[in-house]
Amino acid sequence: MNINSPLSHRTQEPENSVLYIVGTPIGNLDDISLRALNILKRVTFIACEDTRQTKKLMSKFGISNKLISFHQHNSINKIHFIVDSLKKEKSVALVSDAGMPSICDPGENLIKKVRENNYDVICIPGPCAALTALVSSGFPSSSFIFLGFLPRKKKERDQILQEISNFDNTTILYESPHRFKKLLIELKIFCGGDREIQVFRELTKKYEEQIGMNIDMVLRHFEDRNVVGEITIVINGRKNIKTSEINEFILKKDLTELIDAGLTLSSASSYLAKKKNIKKSLIYNLY
Ligand code: SAM
């Protein structure tokens, strides 16, 4: 099959020299698609992040295909092996532990290499935490920014947080549970406590939780809690918050915190004015 051929309606999946990228559930195993199950049964082997994780999915659906591990530490060797297998007319499915491979998961380099070698890449779409959270958030969803996990280094991290504070589009972030509260505090510092966010914990799972409103409220919700599980954060764009909605009480609190941290009234007011897109004098006069 030529990759440039029209893919209007696939009635029969190609069997030879194809890399299938297969989306798998992000929690609820019932979210697997029929097409995904069919491909996982039929390919020559499945490349997966953690064989134990993929075995759980396979045993639930009675699939017993060959698995090979494919993760960031062995990817160079495994990419060669997979491309070699495609040369021998084998078909391969790539899955990650959850969701869409290559979205903050291994796969990107493999897909690039397979394409460079002119083999076909076919995606069997499945759930993705980012999109599941986005469409549930109620924030504008036709145009959005997905950043995955923020960089850990302070300088890069602060720079991107500064950019997020000015984004007019909805922003989606992933974060691990033990770094989640730190991220919330950083978001409050950069975006202001009144920026609207929705936090999605354990999407599609038994203890799914959705907490929304603004950053201050979400911080309060998690204040005394030990956060566990998987978390996706959706942040509303700056321009979607009307000046009239800006809470004077929160503004005063932010201003006081910045002054207590050592900023002058003037620089604290400039900082908040830029962040919240309102006149500096309005903030200055609050103090
Ligand atoms: N490939 C996956 C996808 O398509 O969503 C993402 C993998 S990334 C390594 C894992 C991160 O995705 C988690 O730390 C969390 O931020 C987010 N995530 C995955 N499953 C989730 C769930 N059920 N609920 C909320 N967030 C989830």
Structure in words:
The chain folds into 3 domains: 18-127, Cobalt-precorrin-4 Transmethylase, domain 1; 130-235, Tetrapyrrole methylase, C-terminal domain (Methyltransferase, Cobalt-precorrin-4 Transmethylase, Domain 2), CATH 3.30.950.10; 243-284, no CATH class. Helix 3 runs parallel beside helix 4, helix 6 packs across helix 7 and helix 9 crosses helix 10. It has 11 helices and 10 strands. By secondary structure, the chain is of the alpha/beta class. It is elongated, with a radius of gyration of 23 Å. The model has no long low-confidence stretch (mean pLDDT 91). It has helices at residues 34-42, 51-60, 75-87, 108-116, 129-137, 154-166, 177-191, 215-222, 248-260, 265-276, 280-284, and strands at 18-22, 45-48, 67-69, 91-95, 120-124, 144-148, 170-175, 196-201, 209-214, 231-235. Strands 3-2-4-1-5 form a 5-stranded parallel beta sheet, with helices on both faces. It binds S-adenosylmethionine (SAM). S-adenosylmethionine binds next to helix 5, strand 7 and strand 10.
Short structural description:
With 287 residues, the protein is of the alpha/beta class.
Reconstruct the topology from this structure.
Blueprint: E1 18-22, H1 34-42, E2 45-48, H2 51-60, E3 67-69, H3 75-87, E4 91-95, H4 108-116, E5 120-124, H5 129-137, E6 144-148, H6 154-166, E7 170-175, H7 177-191, E8 196-201, E9 209-214, H8 215-222, E10 231-235, H9 248-260, H10 265-276, H11 280-284
The structure holds S-adenosylmethionine.
The site of S-adenosylmethionine has 23 residues, from helix 5, strand 7 and strand 10.
